[in-house]
């Protein structure tokens, strides 16, 4: 096959490869880039194509392999490799000193806010917090399940309003 015939065949098959590229990348711009990379690789490696074989299948294989290579490259770029000899230092606290007082302040404020809730809201909320299911709370408190859900929702809303100072901290 001459270079001109090969180029014509690539141009003719290009539209049929686009849906496959879009399926792989799930993005139109990335699909166009992948299609272009595939066509460039196919044209530069035209001497490896054997006449009489399925050109479309060959192009699909190039596209799939190009996508996998690009994906692996992207994953490797985001991977941190620790080359230190003492791996136990990775999670050691010697480099970061935390002051637990902020957590203590927050926990004290949360406890006070919960204690300020009316008992009708506090009991179902604390039971739910401790792991009880809605239907278990309803049976234990002898109230309808809808009331349980409503009271827990109101308790959360009241706590959120009372503790809004903690929602603005980054």
From TrEMBL:
Keywords: Sigma factor, Transcription, Transcription regulation. GO terms for biological process: DNA-templated transcription initiation. GO terms for molecular function: DNA binding; sigma factor activity. InterPro entries: RNA_pol_sigma-70-like (IPR039425), RNA_pol_sigma-70_dom (IPR014284), RNA_pol_sigma70_r2 (IPR007627), RNA_pol_sigma70_r4_t2 (IPR013249), RNA_pol_sigma_r2 (IPR013325), RNA_pol_sigma_r3/r4-like (IPR013324), WH-like_DNA-bd_sf (IPR036388). Residues 13-73 form the RNA polymerase sigma-70 region domain. Pfam families: Sigma70_r2, Sigma70_r4_2. Residues 109-159 form the RNA polymerase sigma factor 70 region 4 type domain. Belongs to the sigma-70 factor family. ECF subfamily. This is RNA polymerase, sigma-24 subunit, ECF subfamily. It comes from Cyclobacterium marinum (strain ATCC 25205 / DSM 745 / LMG 13164 / NCIMB 1802). The lineage of its organism: Bacteria, Pseudomonadati, Bacteroidota, Cytophagia, Cytophagales.
């Amino acid at each position: 096959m001459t270079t001109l015939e090969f180029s014509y065949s690539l141009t003719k098959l290009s539209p049929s490869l686009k849906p496959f590229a879009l399926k792989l990348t799930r993005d139109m711009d990335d699909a166009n880039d992948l299609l272009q990379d595939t066509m460039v690789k196919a044209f530069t490696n035209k001497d490896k194509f054997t006449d009489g074989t399925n050109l479309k299948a060959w192009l699909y294989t190039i596209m799939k392999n190009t996508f996998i290579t690009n994906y692996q490259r992207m994953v490797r770029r985001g991977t941190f490799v620790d080359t230190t000899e003492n791996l136990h230092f990775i999670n050691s606290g010697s480099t970061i000193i935390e002051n637990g007082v902020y957590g203590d302040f927050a926990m004290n404020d949360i406890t006070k806010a919960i204690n300020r809730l009316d008992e009708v809201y506090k009991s179902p909320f604390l039971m739910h917090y401790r792991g009880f299911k809605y239907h278990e709370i309803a049976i234990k408190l002898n109230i309808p399940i809808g009331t349980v859900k409503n009271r827990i929702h109101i308790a959360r809303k009241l706590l959120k309003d009372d503790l809004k100072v903690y929602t603005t901290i980054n």
